[in-house]
Amino acid sequence: MKILLSNDDGIHARGIVALAEALLPYGEVTVVAPNRERSACSHSLTLEHPLRTGPVDFPVPVSRALSVNGTPADCVKLGLSKLLESPPDFVISGINKGANLTVDVFYSGTVAAAFEGVFSGIPAIAFSLDSFAPDADYRPAQAWVRRVLDRILAEGPDRGFVYNVNIPALPESEIKGMKVTRLGKVRYRDSYELRHDPVGRPYYWLSGEPVILDQDPDADINAVRAGYVSVTPLTGERTDVAVFRKWQTGRDQP
Ligand code: MN
User: Fold this and answer.
1) Gap between the Cα atoms of 190 and 36, Å rounded
2) Any binding-site annotation on 137?
3) Confidence at 47, pLDDT banded by 50, 70, 90
4) Which of 86, 144, 168, 208 allows an S-S link to 188, with CB 3.0 to 4.6 Å?
5) 8 in a labelled binding site
């Protein structure tokens, strides 16, 4: 099996090394990832300067590791169109430092990298760990990467959506299992913090805590907070089909 691996935390992040290590037994892993952190850049593409790529020393024996001075979407698009000799069986992204749940999936470069796989007809998975701690333990997440991938392989990978996988930052014995979920609803409170610089000028810093508006235990954020590995099938279909049908019917009426 051939896997194209990317992320948005940069090629030197601990999470992508942990993910590569977990995936090595499955076949040939090629890493194409940003040369620096590009979190929260979603599907941004680089249009105004050239993309350059080159090999980097990677701590685990993948077949190739290339960094790109671009975004996660640049990396996957360039990887699929130029850097890989043949299409991979999977595009896999992560393991992101921090969860990608609810509305955050719209901002996430990790999820966007996986979507670039789906846009090219290739099955894709995004993995995120619910921790920003620099010393977070990625070993339980590695075990769940393998379990989730084994389940997907057993069922036959679907190329119509991204498997968005969020793993609680818990010791392995405390993770309750895997749960199929849907995107939960949250609203961020106090999203920007007002501060002042040394000469008294105000500035703003993005912060804020999500207020969960969703009591459904099958919502992704509730599953992760309850200790489950959350697997959400995310489609790229953004059309509201019910409104489409209603308006189309209206148009056709005299
Ligand atoms: Mn990130």
Assistant:
1) 28
2) no
3) very high
4) 208
5) yes
pTM as predicted: 0.96
Distance 128 CA to ligand 1 centre (A): 8
User: pLDDT digits over 71-110, tens only?
Assistant: 999 999 999 999 999 999 999 999 999 999 999 999 999 9
- Taken in order of first residue, the domains within the chain and their CATH numbers are 2-183+215-248 (3.40.1210.10)
Q: Would you say 190 is a known binding-site residue?
A: no
Q: What's the burial of 235, exposed, middle or buried (CB within 10 Å: 0-12/13-18/19+)?
A: exposed
**Are the CB atoms for 125 and 90 separated by under 8 Å?**
yes
> pLDDT by residue (tens digit) across 110-135?
999 999 999 999 999 999 999 999 99
Q: List the structure tokens of 90.
A: 């999977």
Task: Judge whether 207 is annotated as a binding position.
Answer: no
Per-residue b or e along 26-63, where b marks 16 or more CB atoms closer than 10 Å to that residue's CB: bebbbbbbbbeebbbbbbbeeeeeeeebeeeebebebe
